[in-house]
Design brief:
Layout (H helix, E strand, L loop, with lengths): L6 H7 L3 H6 L1 H9 L6 E8 L4 H17 L2 E8 L4 H11 L5 E4 L14 H11 L4 H5 L2 E2 L4 E2 L2 E6 L3 E4 H6 L9 H15 L2 E3 L6 H13 L16 H17 L11 H7 L3 E5 L3 H9 L1 H4 L2 E4 L11 E2 L2 E6 L8 H13 L1 H7 L5 E2 L22 H10 L23 E2 L9 H8 L2 H10 L5 H21 L8
Parallel strand pairs: 1-2, 1-3, 8-9, 11-14
Antiparallel strand pairs: 3-12, 4-5, 6-12, 6-13, 7-9, 7-10
Helix pairs in contact: 6-15, 9-11, 11-19, 12-13, 18-20, 19-20
Length: 473
């Protein structure tokens, strides 16, 4: 038999009793209303090279959580441990809901969700994405957005103007040949080396690719065929060996991602290939060095090509094991883009947006108002023309050569996409190893290039067999 429970019985059994009855109809309705369950969103990202960004981001994420009834937990990790940590989470089937990488994590494609909907919504809200940001988060073979790229970092050359003035090149190098010619003189005559790495770390990966592209060669062509073993690659590798012999020191073979920054700040480098983070650190720690640091765009190769590998590309992924929180994660990423004016400002212009047409929100944004600025492009142009973070008495136009950097910046995998094969080659440091072996006279340029191509082909074939790299053409 069914037992019917009266309202009074329910209240008494539920422990509300006469107190509940005394609340009255209106408040009683609130007692019975089901409150949405508070959820938790976990974010894993690297410890930023510009610490003030993390000091902004963490409270921003917490405030976002309060507005959405979510506990947001942000965990920071050393750059060198990021990939291995995520690989462990994938193996365990649990971990963070959003993982932010700073190089295309294309080799993790099988383990992450397709973020096509987020990318499409971002295009609707914020306009066209910088093309190499799309190539760093989309696999044209599987038609899958394995990530969402909200921003990137310019990779210029940083040079000490006073040193280059003394050898007759006050505006710094324009070509790779300038780097060799004048860098050699600076080291011999002034005793100051250059800082370009050939070790297993981020900056060495970037520098090696910029060198290859500017010498009109690459790992793959636009159709994802390995083309590394050719005369132009051998030419580039021989050039790097000569550059090492004349302008560098053996320490570049054991560098970390912070080493060239430290060399510049210490006043021991005439030129490094890096973002503006080293300069920002020098402004804080060694102002006199900072005032002497200026910037060059990508250097031209022997036939006039000039390409830089974007220094950092922010690609966030949502792992398959975090699918239950995917709605929160996607909304968080979209809202971060909507607030990217603050991301630019709080990174001291280290971070550039992937969506330059994003409207600037109204109201107090925590920075001096830029007259007439309606989009992030307007802010970018204004700030790079007159650096708001310049020190007193320092020239404010130093960043002007970087204002149109997206024209000479490109993605890992250029001239093709940042496919999983390119991702694995990047993470296993095939290119820095190839360059180092020749500079250390362990192999000839021809031998090292041939060996590197064989490694690349094996990696490409592995991913091609899984359908994640295009068919040979």
């Amino acid at each position: 038999m069914k037992r019917y429970i009266t309202r009074r019985d329910f209240l008494r059994n539920a422990g509300i009793g006469t107190v509940g009855l005394a609340l009255g109809p209106a408040l009683l309705k609130d007692v019975f209303a089901q409150k949405p369950e508070r959820r938790t969103l976990r974010i894993l990202q690297w410890s930023h090279f510009v610490p003030r960004y993390d000091r902004w981001f963490d409270p921003y994420a917490k405030r976002w959580g309060e507005e959405h009834n979510v506990d947001v937990i942000v965990d920071h990790i050393g750059l060198a441990d990021l990939r291995s940590t995520f690989a462990s989470e994938v193996a365990a089937g649990k971990g963070h809901d959003i993982i932010e990488f700073i190089a295309p994590p294309s080799d993790f494609e099988p383990s992450v969700l397709d973020l096509k909907d987020v990318n499409q919504e971002a295009q609707k809200k914020f306009g066209k994405q910088v093309p190499f940001a799309t190539r760093s988060s989309y696999n044209p073979n599987t038609k899958k957005f394995y990530g969402f790229c909200h921003g990137w970092t310019i990779d210029p050359g940083d040079y000490r103007k006073s040193l280059w003035e003394k050898v007759g090149k006050p505006e710094g190098p324009v070509t790779w040949e300038d780097l060799l010619t004048y860098g050699t003189r600076i080291k011999k005559e002034l005793g100051v080396q250059m800082g370009i790495g050939m070790s297993q770390e981020l900056d060495s990966n970037m520098a090696g690719r910029a060198l290859l592209w500017s010498f009109d060669t690459a790992i793959q062509d636009e159709n994802e065929n390995v083309i590394l073993d050719n005369k132009k690659t051998v030419e580039a590798v021989k050039f790097m060996a000569e550059l090492y012999k004349n302008t560098l020191t053996p320490e570049v073979f054991g560098w970390t991602a912070a080493s060239n920054n430290q060399l510049l700040i210490a006043g021991r480098a005439s030129y490094i290939l890096n973002s503006i983070s080293a300069y920002r650190s020098a402004q804080k720690d060694v102002p006199e060095v900072a005032k002497d640091v200026f910037f060059t765009p990508a250097l031209k190769g022997p036939r006039g090509k000039a390409w830089a590998c974007e220094h950092v590309i922010y690609v966030s992924v949502i792992p398959k094991f975090a699918s239950k929180n995917a709605d929160l994660a996607k909304q968080f990423l979209l809202d971060l883009c909507a607030n990217y004016d603050r991301a630019m400002w709080e990174s001291a212009l280290y971070g550039s947006p992937s969506f330059f047409s994003t409207p600037v929100p109204s109201g107090d944004r925590g920075y001096p108002q830029v007259k007439g600025a309606k989009t992030l492009r307007d802010l970018h142009n204004a700030w790079f023309s007159e650096d708001p973070f310049a020190l007193p008495g320092e020239r404010k136009d130093k960043l002007l050569p970087l204002r149109d950097a997206e024209k000479w910046s490109t993605n890992v995998g250029h001239p093709g996409p940042a496919n999983p094969a390119e991702g694995e080659i990047f993470s296993t440091f095939v290119i820095p190893n190839m360059l180092a072996k020749v500079a250390q006279e362990k192999q000839s340029a021809e031998e090292s290039v041939k060996q590197a191509e064989e490694e690349c082909k094996k990696i490409f074939e592995k991913w091609r067999a899984q359908g994640l790299v295009g068919k040979k053409k």
